[in-house]
Structure formats: structure tokens, C-alpha cells
Amino acid sequence: MLISVSKKACRHLPWLNLGGAKLHARWSSSSYLKQASTFHGSCEAFASPNTHAHRDTVERRAHRAPLQIADQDTAGLVGPEDLVIVFGTTTAGDRPELVQATRFWRKGVAAFIATNGNVSETELRVGQINNEVYVTYPDSTDGRTQYPGDTRAALAPLLAHRALRGQYKWLLYGDDDTLWFMNGVLDLAGKMDSSMPYIITDAGYWHNWSKPGFHARFDEDGPLQCLPCNFPAAEWREAEGSAFTPPIACPCTTQLLCDADQRGILSKDCQMPEWFRMIHHIDGGAGALISHGLMEALDADAYEACVTSGDGIASDYLFSYCMWQSGFAPTFPSFNSMPRDIPKEHTLFNPAALLDTHHNPDRAATVANLLAAIERRESCDPPCVGRLMSMVSLHLKAQHTANMQSGIFLLRSISGLYDSFLASNNKTGLTKWPLVRFDKSKEPSSGWDRKDVPVMQKAFRKYDFGLLNEDHPAHLREKG
């Protein structure tokens, strides 16, 4: 894996000392590594003869100059500088134009971009101005996955963690056409502890032979997700005939979910259902918030080996499967964890994604609600405003638009409407958000052995529309 920087920046990268192996940067026009091809204009780290493995030394070197990310010890606050948007992309076709268009709504929030080809010096300079880091990782050519870039996209969080040396609190992991709404992101991130291993999302797919076809959103029959600590469990109502109630846990571990498995969906040795008999995975386009704590706890080598050798339909399946193999599963933060009679648009990630239509978000409904809220029409009542204020992401599905320019126009339009909506509700600009309090005297949920990781005391504050209440009864503060 090579980090693409300008030739000038490459020359000024400092000497490093990793376990006695001295490294320095070398500008390279053509060379080859085991895990990643070097493209014209790449920066390579090389070592003295007594070095560790080449992959390890290269990937542990970080190019930090263009990033503006807060230190991990910024106690009690979470802000834009604590976030890094992470995605895989390709240089093929007009996808680079889509990547550049993210600058309109990112507004300086750092981006880590894993691509398959050369990035010009000019684009690198512009990228540095826009707080971007590019990493090259080759396409897969062995036919294991649906797209050649799936391995790269599934590895993107790990590549980011290595390159950034952990200088972030949250990775916003999605596709290159995922639009993140920063007000909702910061609101959600401010309720969760970034030192706890978390994969936070309420959007995913499930499939099994008894219910043919792919379906948007996770199914209650599948024990592959947890509710966050201190979730108001009294408000959870198991659907008619469902055999699974998600455990309340922090963090969400595979062992906890196996213990909660009442239908025998998982194997006796706690393995995810075998491909293709049953499939559960996050929606990569809707995205997920990945905590610094997760990436620190992850066995990076095992995860990488899983991704680079596993079969699967797409990158989001590879990510979900290999995280499961590593011991971690998603935590659902929001309305999708509520009873079935609450409409599906009550979700934070990719709101209004339609059930039984694979993963096509109802973008028109989001646009209509934003317009109605800006104009203060009755069609967007207070619960509607609350949902817009808290929504986290929207998958644009750019390839389903007439052309890339249409997709970019849609991206800019929705982002502009969102900014106008925030301004109309006295939310101008991104600010620091206070973190909720944590009860450090509690032990983490069973299955997690990091004794000093704090467990959340309050995961949610009370919303105006009354679906979640911070005044939980005492019994809800017990371990999940």
C-alpha cells in the first residue's frame, strides 16, 4: 500500500524508526509491491536491510501533513475535526468527478480516499487544500467479488487507521456517493463513546430462502445486531412471530449475539450464516460510524487476511463478514430498533429506504421534506423536522442517474437544501457537541475483556418527538 503525495511532499517526509528499522520516503515512478502496485507519482517507504516485513513497514508510515484532526484526548467534546470520511473508489470513468464533488458538502472535514490508480500532482495539491489523503490499492482480479474494487473498499477503514495513526475519533465509512449530514453525524457521535468498539448503523440487508429476495433493513429474525447500552428496552416490542430480541450491549460482540440466538440461525461455533444460504450485512451505501476503539481492538492482520481471501457479493458483505469473524457486530442506534409500526423513514442512515426494493432510497421524499421544512409547511410537522435534523446519511446511487453530472447536481442540490434547512432552524455551521456522561464504574458487557473501557450510562438524550427518553429506569442501567 502506497500513499500518494506530491513529489515535493514526498521529499520532505521524515525518517522514521520502527522497531529498529530505519525508513525514509523515496519518490518512485515505477515499482511493484506484493499488496499494491506503485503508480507514476507515488511515494514509497523503504527500509534498511534489517527491516520488518515490507507490507508492515510501508503501511505503518503515515503522511499526516494535509490532515487537521483533533487529538484523542479532547475530553468531553466531538467536532468536525474528530471525523474522517472514508471510502473506496476508482479512477475509471467519471468517478473522480464525483469524489471531487464531495468537497461541496464536506466543508473541510477530512477525507481518506482509497483508489486504484494514479492521482496527479495537481489533484494532490488541490486535495491537500481540501483536507484529503489518497491511497492506492489495486483492483482484485481473481473474481471473488462482484466488483474489482470490493476488496479495496472493504479494507478502506483499516488502511485509513494505519495511515492516520489513529488520529481521529470516528470514521464515516460509506461509498463514494454517500452524502453525510454533519449535524446528524455529530449529534449521533456525541452520544457514543469513541473508545468503545462500535459499528453504528441502522441500515442493512438480509436474505434467506424462506423470504426470497433482498430486503432493505435488517430483519428481526436475524440475531446480528445489538441495541446500545441503556436503550429504553421497555419500548421495544418484538414483532409477532419473531424469535429474536436484540441484546443490549456495549460493545456488540459476536458471542453475545450467539448467546441470544434462539432459532439456531448461527452455527454452533458462532459463525455467521453460510453464504449464500442466509445473508446479513450492513448497507455500505448508507454507511456506518466506525469508532477509533473498534479499529484499535481489531486484529488487523486477521481482518486483512479475511477480506483478501473471502468470497462475497460486495464490499459491504466482506466488511460485515470479516468484522464478525473478528468478534464485532453492528450496534443499532435509532428508530429502526423500535416496533414495526413505526414507519421505516424513522431511520438515521439512508432515511426512507424502501422495504423490498433492494437499496433504493426515496430521495424525492427527503427533498420534499427539506423543502417543506424550510418553507415551514404543515406537511413537515415537528416529528418530520426532528427526523431531518437527526438524519445521518443518504446514498445517492449516482450510477442510477442519467449521467454523472446529473448525480453531482443532485448531490449539490440536496446538500444545499440541507444547509438552508439548518439555517432556518438556527443551526449555522458545525460546532462542538458535548458528549454524554459515562459510568466508568460499570464492567463492559460479557464477551469483552478490555476492563478499562467505560460503558455508556446515557446513550441518548430525549428527542422532541418523544421516541427516546433519557430518564431510563434503574434496571435499564444494568449490563446487557
Automatic annotation (TrEMBL):
Gene3D superfamilies: 3.90.550.50. It is found in: Membrane. It comes from Apatococcus fuscideae. Keywords: Membrane, Signal-anchor, Transmembrane, Transmembrane helix. Belongs to the glycosyltransferase 31 family. Beta3-Gal-T subfamily. The keyword Membrane applies. One of its GO terms (cellular component) is membrane. It is a single-pass type II membrane protein. Transmembrane segments: none annotated. This is Uncharacterized protein.
